[in-house]
Amino acid sequence: MFLMGRSTGWWLLGILCRISLNPESCILRSADSFYRRGRTLLVIAKFIPGINTMAPPLAGCMNMRFMSFLGLDLVGAAFYIISYFGVGFAFSGALQAVTRSYRIFGRVIGWVVIALGASYVAFQVWLWIRERTRVPVPFAIPTEAAIEMAGGACIYDVRSHGYLDAKATRISGSRRLDPNSIHRSNQEFADGQVAYLYCTCFREATSVRVARELQKKGVRVAVIKGGLRAWTRAGLPVEGVPPEEMAALPVFG
After folding, report:
1. 251 located within any domain
2. What is the pTM of this model?
């Protein structure tokens, strides 16, 4: 994973963050946190699900020296093994009692799992009800947005933080609209014309959020369904991101 992170750059981290509702924000937070606490995280990463997966590719992406990574990873592995071996040795006398209580423990865990499952279903129902009460956000397929753009409509890139690497692309002719400063933005929108928004988030989460904010301001909006990936699959034109808009993510020297 370290070598893959070193060779693929931020692409691998983007894949790992894909399950996040906001993958760009996930990448930015992960990189910043790892830069400040990376060496400590590598030592304790094996105790923390998720961090154990993210830490090696982050170290590779951020140009940590291989020997430094290897040393910290070995220390972390030793710490992990010694900790669990020590716990097993210290509480070996309690294993028989634990075995006798296994059935009771299993039933308790079963009820906990059922309760968590029911809570998750209830949460999803609540989200569905909340979405039904909101003003609907219109969607547009990429070819429709491209036709409207040719007629003078504007397309806005609302990805969360900017761009990650020198190979980053965006829709040709699109404009940057920072979703985190939408309340302070002085961006002007043409009266009566639809503003098309796109991102790379799961279910276009960022685009939908920005669209609702703009609707409150009286702006006509539409979200490009599938975002930048759908636009690219449709064979529509993209361009490189201008260097001045690139995100300066931290790296180890």
Report:
1. no
2. 0.59
